[in-house]
Amino acid sequence: MQENRTLDRILSRNNLNDAFRQVERNKGAAGIDGMTIEEANEYLRQHKEELIQAIRQRNYQPKPVRRVEIPKPSGGVRLLGIPTVIDRVIQQAIAQVLTPVFEEYFHNSSYGFRPNRNAHMAIAQGLSDMNEGYHWIVDIDLEKFFDTVNHDRLMNLVSRKITDGDVISLIRKYLVSGIMVNGQYEESLVGTPQGGNLSPLLSNILLNELDQELEKRGLRFVRYADDCIIFVKSELAARRVMRSVTRYIEETLGLTVNTTKSKVIKPNDPSFKFLGFGFYWSRADNGYQAKPHAISIKTFSYKLHQLSKKSWGIDMAYRIVRLNQVIRGWVNYFKIGNMYTKLKKIASHLRYRLRMCIWHQWKTAKNRRKALVKLGMSDYNAYVNSHSSKGTARIAQSWVMTTTVTNKILARKGLLSPDSYYLKQKHVI
Fold first, then answer.
1. Among candidates 60, 311, 102, 346, which has minimal Cα distance to 202?
2. What is the biggest distance separating any 2 CA atoms in the chain, rounded to whole angstroms?
3. Are 49 and 55 in contact (CB under 8 A)?
4. Mean of the per-residue pLDDT values for the chain?
5. At what angle do helices 340-362 and 365-374 cross, to 10 degrees?
6. How far, in Å, CA of 139 to CA of 295, rounded?
């Protein structure tokens, strides 16, 4: 029977195995039951058939999600809901089957949480629109989007494409499974918890209505999850679009627009940020170009600062591993932007801080003398400078450390220089 085919595909052996492997790759914290991915693997070996039967008979009840607060770089917190590992596997299994069904209906200007699409593509389209004369941006901020989604409206949209009542019932159970906050249960009458494997797909299903409305109005836009910017040619048109689209979002979609954060703005305004990027007018290219926003650079610098504290008592090899993880991740994300000059300064400052760490780790004059000699300094200079009364910061900036713990030495220890790594990644593009 056609109505049962969707659930059959979700609960098929291959789909569930693929879902488990994906959850395993994503890692992530345990839910309210404390079960780890390793424990879930053993649990599923023993209880897989019981679980499938419970879902088929509509007896399965998802556990509430665990509320976690993640600090935002700009202040405040982002509320995440962490499902149990078992629920993450089931949600992933649902998403794997439903995603291809909805993909054909999603708009081409939507890039978030979709197969073969990413933030770089969203930035590229945005630059294209800006450089075709659409120099005014309507930046719409949806207030606590994941916490305010109307369940009935969302399920109505899902049921237009999915006719299997068992699947509809299972998805709704996840929407209303509740939240555990500091050991207290709270109902989830609205919203789709940010952190669940199904939430990105459900958010795209709802916001596809906005995409189609903008298309109907002939507007150029880029959307990445709940971040949406619209491009127009004049300030007057931008303010008109802001008013009419805000009305549509609030009255038709039932969502809330944050009027204090939403704005009409030019791309090169320092306060404008989209997906972590800022934009500037390049005379050489006669057009707009992307760069990491000042806030993104500040966040990156802060992370490097925390990992290069001399008071953090770990060996240099592990410190460099951690630093390289941050450098790789950040540069790979922002590599489509222009940032070489900024990264050169950051790289220089990072090496200075690591020299402080190294001097601090040598601790005693005896150790410092031995280390300096080993690095090529004469016995006399090593003896004199190992007894220096200068503070760690001054020594790290002086010839004593810069001519011994050279950039090449730090590179030999495995340190990635952000500026050099950026140039390599830029070449790959």
1. 102
2. 89
3. no
4. 93
5. 130
6. 17
Backbone angles phi, psi at 404, to 5 degrees: -110, -60
Q: Is the separation of the CB atoms in 191 and 146 below 8 Å?
A: yes
Cβ–Cβ under 8 Å, residues 331 and 427: no
Q: Is 237 exposed, middle or buried (0-12, 13-18, 19+ CB in 10 A)?
A: middle
Secondary structure class of 335 (helix, strand, coil): coil
Could you tell me the CA-to-CA distances from 182 to 66, 67, 69, 75, 187 in Å, in that order? Answer: 9, 8, 11, 22, 14
d(CA 378, CA 41): 60
Q: What confidence score (pLDDT) does residue 173 get?
A: 94
Tokens encoding 411: 């590179």
Give the mean pLDDT of 337-362. Answer: 97
Cβ distance 331 to 418 under 8 Å?
A: yes
* Cα separations in angstroms, 398 against 15, 350, 388: 60, 15, 12
Cβ atoms of residues 262 and 246 within 8 Å: yes
Which one-letter amino acid corresponds to residue 395?
Answer: I
What is the Cα–Cα distance from 268 to 349, expressed in whole angstroms?
A: 28
- Contact assessment for residue 72 and residue 51, using Cβ atoms and an 8 Å cutoff: no
- The whole-number pLDDT of residue 22 equals 96
Token pair 């500026």 in the structure block, residue: 419
Q: Which amino acid is at 60?
A: Y
